[in-house]
Design goal:
Layout lengths: L1 H28 L1 H6 L2 E2 L1 H5 L3 H15 L1 H17 L12 H16 L1 H21 L1 H6 L5 H5 L1 H18 L1 H21 L1 E2 L15
Antiparallel strand pairs: 1-2
Helix pairs in contact: 1-4, 1-5, 1-11, 4-5, 5-6, 5-7, 6-7, 7-10, 10-11
Length: about 210
């Protein structure tokens, strides 16, 4: 029993660290957008220092549970590239090809089951973030999946991704939601809202 508790803690620690690293880097890349919304995230305030600290969190997550950390990172990258799959990236490759490469690497390094779980989990969190932020994104001209496909369709996709993640590994998925809660609290505690265009603070979802 002690071994099961220790393994559960390692999984939880890995997901918290990996999720925090992904959120930190995502906030850094979205710094200009967040500033325009009156959101000063921790990554905005730390500026370029956010990237090396994000790397430290990523390495710690890998030390805690390497296959899971890799599947989550590659899953997050693949889902992120799908948001504008026709875009040509600085590597001169289209985003859709880098998505395929990320999934392929995850499959090779972690196995199909873990790789698919990480991809579905990150897709679920990303699409949930799009549903929550659809009004704010609409005001700023962003085109997330909820705006492109519609709320009902995006909600259905989110639920399908969640069901898939549960079927692949219900235990990991349950722990992921606990980690999600911790990262949400951390994100809200470290974000300063200067104003809100709608008169209300827009809730942020990590890992998106």
């Amino acid at each position: 029993m002690f071994g099961d508790l220790l393994e559960g803690f390692r999984i939880f620690l890995c997901l918290v660290l990996a999720g925090a690293a992904i959120k930190w880097v995502d906030d850094y890349l979205d710094a200009e957008y967040d500033i325009c919304r009156g959101k000063h995230t921790l990554a905005v305030r730390m500026s370029r220092s956010a990237l090396p600290y994000g790397m430290v969190l990523a390495f710690l997550a890998a030390a805690a549970q390497l296959p899971m950390a890799l599947s989550v990172f590659f899953g997050s990258y693949a889902v992120g590239m799908l948001s504008d799959w026709k875009q040509v990236l600085p590597t001169k490759l289209p985003a859709w090809l880098e998505t395929v490469m990320a999934v392929a690497l995850s499959l090779v390094l972690t196995g199909w089951r873990t790789a698919l779980w990480g991809l579905l989990l990150m897709a679920m969190f990303d699409w949930l973030d799009d549903l929550v932020d659809r009004l704010a994104d609409q005001r700023t001209g962003q085109h997330n999946i909820a705006l492109r496909l519609g709320v009902v369709e995006a909600t259905l996709l989110t639920m399908l991704a969640l069901c898939g993640a549960i079927l692949l590994n219900a235990w990991w998925t349950a722990i992921a939601f606990l980690a999600f809660t911790v990262i949400t609290m951390w994100s809200e505690a470290t974000t300063r809202s200067l104003w809100s265009a709608s008169g209300e603070d827009d809730k942020e979802v990590p890992w998106g």
